[in-house]
Amino acid sequence: MRHHLILRVITKLLVGTIFLFALYVQFHGDYSPGGGFQAGVIMAAGFIIYGLVFTLDKAQQVFPPWLVHKLIALGVLLYAGTGIYSLFAGYAYLDYAALDPHHPEHGQHYGILIVELGVGITVTAVMVAVYYAFASRAPILSDEDW
Amino acid sequence: MDAVDVAFTEAAVGAGISTVLMLGTLALTARSERSSSRSSFVPLLAVLVTGAALVYGTLDMPSFGQSDAPAQTHVGPDYLERIPHEVGVPNAVTAILASYRGYDTLGETAVVFAAGIGVLMLISGLRTRRRKEEDDPDTGGSA
C-alpha cells in the first residue's frame, strides 16, 4: 500500500488522537459518557485502522498477538480479582468500599476505575484479536480480481 | 436517565469494528454461493415461530417513552437519589453499571472474553491445522 499517500498521512495524524480519545473515554467515564466498553472499542479501532493502512505485519509489531491473547484474560482477571480482594478485606464480593475502608465513597470511585480498566483491556484485546484472526488468513482473491 | 453511553457504544462498534469485520469476511469468502439441495421449509418455520414469539413478547411492554412505566416510577428515581451519597460518581450510568450491577458487568466481560476465545479457536485454529496439512506432504515427499 505504498501508494496511498493521503491515507498514510491522515492515519498517522489520527491514530494518536484516537488513542488519546480512548484513554479519555476510559478514565473520564465516571464524569462523562463512556467507560470500559466504549474505550475498548475505540482503542481497538485505533489499532485496526493502523493495521488496515500500514499492513497487518506493522500492526503486529506494535501490538504482538501473544500480548493480545494474554490481555484478553488479564482484563477479566483484573475485574474478578477486585472482587476477590474485597472478599479478603472482609467485605462482600465486588463491594468496592473495601478499597478504602475509611472513605467508602472513595473506595467506590477506585473500584469503578479498576473494574472499568479491566473491561477496557478485555474489550480492546478481544476486538484486536478478532481482527488479527480475520486479517491474518490468506484472502482468496488477489488485488487484481477486485 | 438518557443513557448516552449505550448510544456511544453502538456508534463506536457500528462505525469502527463492524465494517472492518464485514469487509474481512467478504475477503475471506467466495463470491458465489453453493446451491443447496435441501428445502428451506423447516428453517423458515423456525424463523417465523421465533419471530412471532418475540413480537408477542413485546405486546406486554410499556410503550416507548411512557412516563408511568415501572422503570420510570420507582427504579430510576431510586438510583438517582442514592447515587450522589452512596457512590458519589456524577455519571449515573457508570455508577449503576460498575457498582450496583457489578455482577452483571462481570458476566458481560466474561461473555466478551468467551466470544473472543471462541472466534480465536474457530479461525486461528483452522489456520494452523491447514498449515500442518500443507507441511505434511512436503516432509513426506522429501523423505
- So what's the oligomer here? heterodimer
Number of DSSP-assigned strands of chain B: 0
- Tally of DSSP β-strands of chain A: 0
Q: Cα distance, first to last residue of chain A? A: 15 Å
Structural descriptors:
heterodimer; A: 146 residues; mainly alpha; 72% helix; elongated; B: 143 residues; 5 helices; 77% helix; extended
Commentary on this structure:
- The complex is a heterodimer of chains A (146) and B (143).
- Chain A is an all-alpha fold and 146 residues long.
- Chain A has one domain (5-145).
- Chain A has helices spanning 5-27, 36-53, 55-62, 65-88, 104-135.
- Chain A is elongated and about 60 Å long.
- The two termini of chain A are 15 Å apart.
- With 143 residues, chain B is mostly helical.
- Chain B is built from five helices and no strands.
- In chain B, helix 4 (92-100) crosses helix 5.
- The longest helix of chain B is centred in the C-terminal third of the chain and has 41 residues, at 102-142.
- Chain B is extended, with a radius of gyration of 24 Å.
- Mean pLDDT of chain B is 80; it is low at 138-143.
- Chains A and B meet through helix 2, helix 4 and helix 5 of A and helix 1, helix 4 and helix 5 of B.
